[in-house]
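User: Sequence recovery, please. Input:
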């Protein structure tokens, strides 16, 4: 008999049990739909938590990735990667940034931003300015540094002491942000729209004020657009709605259309301190990932694509507003921007989500008892109407 691996401990699954998974498995996807092996169809308004930006099995992405698979998967950043250079230049041309570092996830992109803050102030003879002010209910990733940046107890529990160097101020309050600045502060880190925190937004004056504070106190301003960037709000980057530019920006999720891609964008002034050897990634910027990123931008940057996202957003938000108005016993308010919409629930959002699943629709719970609705950016009026009908059925049957 083989050796007992349990040694008196309870059984554990071969996949580490770090997720509270639904008892659902999908075999294939097409556009805004996922299908189980049994053929049951689900309307996907989760999009892999805002990742599958162009829907499932987009033919153009498939074509580009299949072609690249036959050529080259990986060669490392010891060598030039033409598709990486092309994607970097396109992101630079489309943003405030002068340069881009590629990685594999949003958390890695934020880690790069945090390292850049410390190196920037170190090279400018201010090594004590390593503290970063983030906001309440923020989410910036699952690494030790990024859970400290997020500052939420539910993510920090069991992983203390928290990484040093993070302070927090109430999201949306310029006064709180100013009060949090000390002689050790080096940067401000904020999501233009809070994702995991429950799709909380702030007004244009708040973001303009953050830029003013950063300039006044010699701080770097970092926008975390991991969830709200890459067309999700109807503009390529969410901060464009506010007319404010950061010094550093992190993106991921929708950039790869489902393939793991993360990126940290920065100005020349900020990033010039990141010289050879200061940062790196084995897999970041590999040919497959860069092909995916370029294919996504090919579609999103086409004339009329983002305009259609804005048009669909108007139809969606109007329908959701009517839903909330007619079912105040179920929903308190609508939150969000573009195709990044949330419904603050009366009952626990997990219960509402389970009812949606039974009706064949996928959504994502978030903080603040909000249910996130993140349809792919290729969504049409037909799928929006289907989603509203399912939500209405859940409301009616819950009465």
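Assistant: Recovered sequence (399 residues):
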């Amino acid at each position: 008999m083989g050796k007992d691996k349990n040694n008196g401990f309870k059984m554990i699954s071969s996949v580490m049990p770090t997720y509270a998974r639904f008892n659902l498995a999908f075999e294939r996807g097409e556009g805004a739909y996922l299908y189980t092996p049994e053929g049951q169809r689900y309307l996907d308004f989760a999009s892999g938590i805002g990742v599958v930006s162009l829907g499932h099995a987009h033919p153009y992405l498939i074509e580009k990735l299949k072609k690249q698979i036959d050529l080259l998967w990986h060669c490392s950043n010891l060598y030039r990667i033409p598709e990486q250079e092309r994607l970097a230049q396109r992101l630079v041309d489309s943003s405030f940034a002068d340069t881009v570092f590629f990685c594999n996830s949003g958390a890695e992109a934020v880690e790069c931003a945090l390292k850049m803050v410390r190196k920037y102030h170190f090279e400018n003879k201010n090594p004590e300015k390593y503290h970063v002010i983030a906001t309440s209910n923020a989410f910036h990733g699952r690494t030790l540094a990024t859970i400290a940046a997020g500052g939420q107890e539910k993510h920090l529990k069991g992983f203390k002491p928290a990484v040093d160097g993070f302070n927090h101020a109430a999201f949306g309050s310029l006064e709180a942000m100013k009060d949090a600045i000390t002689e050790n502060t080096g940067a401000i880190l904020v999501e233009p729209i809070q994702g995991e925190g429950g799709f909380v937004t702030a007004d244009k004056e708040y973001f303009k004020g953050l830029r003013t504070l950063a300039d006044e106190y010699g701080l770097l301003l970092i926008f975390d657009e991991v969830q709200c960037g890459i067309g999700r709000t109807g503009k390529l980057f969410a901060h464009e709605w506010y007319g404010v530019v950061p010094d550093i920006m992190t993106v991921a999720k929708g950039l790869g259309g489902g393939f793991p891609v993360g990126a940290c964008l920065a100005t020349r002034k900020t990033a010039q301190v990141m010289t050879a050897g200061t940062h790196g990634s084995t897999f970041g910027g590999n040919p497959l990932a860069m092909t995916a990123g370029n294919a996504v931008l090919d579609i999103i940057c086409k004339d009329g694509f983002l305009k259609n996202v804005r048009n669909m957003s108007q139809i969606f938000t109007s329908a959701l507003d009517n839903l909330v108005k007619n079912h105040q016993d179920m929903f308190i308010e609508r939150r969000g921007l573009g195709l990044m919409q949330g419904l603050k629930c009366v009952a626990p959002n997990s219960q509402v989500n389970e009812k949606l699943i039974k009706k064949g629709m996928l959504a994502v719970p978030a903080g603040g008892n909000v249910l996130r609705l993140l349809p792919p950016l290729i969504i049409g009026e037909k799928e929006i109407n289907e989603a509203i009908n399912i939500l209405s059925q859940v409301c009616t049957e819950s009465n």
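The first strand starts at residue 28 and ends at 30.
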